[in-house]
Every structure is written in structure tokens, then in C-alpha cells.
Amino acid sequence: MHPNPAFRPDEQGPAWDLVRERGFGILTVSGPEGVLASHIPFVVEDNRIAAHLVRSNPIVRLLKKNSAEALLIVSGPDAYISPDWYLVADQVPTWNYVAVHLRGQLELLEAGALLPHLEALSADREERLLPKKPWTHGKMTDGVMERMMRQIVPVAMEVREITSTWKLNQNKDEDARLNAAHAVAKSPIGAGNADLATLMRNETD
After folding, report:
1. b/e sequence 113-146, b meaning 16+ C-beta within 10 Å
2. Phi, psi of 151, deg, nearest 5
3. Is residue 101 classed exposed, middle or buried when 0-12, 13-18 and 19+ CB atoms within 10 A define those classes?
4. Are 103 and 70 in contact (CB under 8 A)?
5. Rg of the chain over CA atoms, in angstroms?
6. What is the rounded CA–CA span in Å between residue 125 and residue 7?
7. pLDDT tens across 100-126, in order?
8. Over the stretch 137-155, which tens digit does the pLDDT of each residue have?
């Protein structure tokens, strides 16, 4: 997280909204041989993150011994900011971005939790594709889903702490920030530039 308090809001609602919307992040835990990381889809259940991992994942081997302190990193839009875009002298390049960190205890769940989790995960994403008829595992040939499920295990993390960075040029004058937002929207450098530009325009000093 960025150390500048201008980029660290106290209100957690927008951070949770981003986490629910993205539903994908980098799960990290510290193992005997160093930091382990896995890119995972997930669903939010109140203050709990429900996910699954491939059975052969080193994180799973670690969790078989005990639960583990974990950090889930969820990224929002980001983009390079050229100093020229502010139309103000003596500026330097930077990178604007949104990111959320969630910390808590990660544990393996019983096998019976896997199918309800997978159903909730696919339903959450399929609902966003309406009016397409939602996919369900009922469309699969008998036995195929069960065979695939043997390769993965359910996990969950009770979120103890959530922090976020919203680096949107809040430390700049409004005109400079809006000038940069206009350029970001057209820039080829970044991910989700249009969304980032909207956040920059909506930010109040």
C-alpha cells in the first residue's frame, strides 16, 4: 500500500465493492521455502473470501499441516502518467492505480464445501452475462464434473484487515488532475484506462 495518506481512504466500502466486482486476485502465503503465490477467482461471503486451489498447489500442501496467514491482492485499473499531461511545470512521471489488500487466516475446507462454492462462483459471473442463459454444471455429462472436482480443493479466508490505495492524483490541483485524466483515457499504456480516468475525474480535492 502507498504510504501517502492522501491515497489511503478510511472508508472501506469502495474497496469491498472493487473486490466483489473483480472476483480475481493474487493469493500469497509464506511457506518454509519462501513466499507462495497463486492467481485465483473467488467470491465474497460477508467478510469471508471463498476460493479453490488445484490439489497439487504448494499452498494446499502447506494448509494440510495448518491454517496460514494470507494476503490476497486485488488490482483495479492502472495507467502510466506522463508529466506533460498536467500542463504544469516541474512534474515527474508516475503511475496511478487502485489496489486492495486483504489479510486473514486461510484454511482448507471440507470436501462438501466445494460444489456449493463452485456453483456460487459460476453463478456470480454468469449473472453478469445476461441475457445469455446462465451456464450450470447440470449441462455437463454425468460424471465429468465429479472427476474434475477431484483435482481441486475448497479454501476460505476470514478477512481480518482490508486496506486500499486509490492513487488518482489527489495531491495535484484539480485542473492538473483533470488534464491528466483526459490524457489517460486515450493512453495505450495501462489496464482499464477509461475506468481509471473516470475515477480521477470523480476524485475531489
Report:
1. bbeebbeebbeeeeeeeeeeeeeeeeeeeeeeee
2. -90, -5
3. middle
4. yes
5. 20
6. 30
7. 999 999 999 999 999 999 999 999 999
8. 989 999 999 999 999 999 9
Beta bridge partners, 49, equal 44, 157
Query: Which cell numbers in the block locate residue 104?
Result: 486473514
Q: Residue 98: beta bridge partners?
A: 166
Q: Measuring CA to CA, which residue among 26, 4, 14, 48 is closest to residue 154? A: 48
C-alpha cell at 21: 466486482
Q: Any residues with CB less than 8 A from the CB of 72 and at least 6 apart, and which? A: 25, 26, 27, 28, 42, 49, 101, 102, 103, 157
Give the cell for residue 141.
455429462
- 155-168 mean pLDDT: 96
Coil/strand/helix, residue 131: coil
Q: pLDDT band for position 204 (50/70/90)?
A: very low
Integer Cα distance of 31 and 67 in angstroms: 11
Indicate the range of 5-9, 27-31, 143-147 predicted with least confidence: 5-9
Cα separations in angstroms, 160 against 138, 163, 187: 36, 10, 37
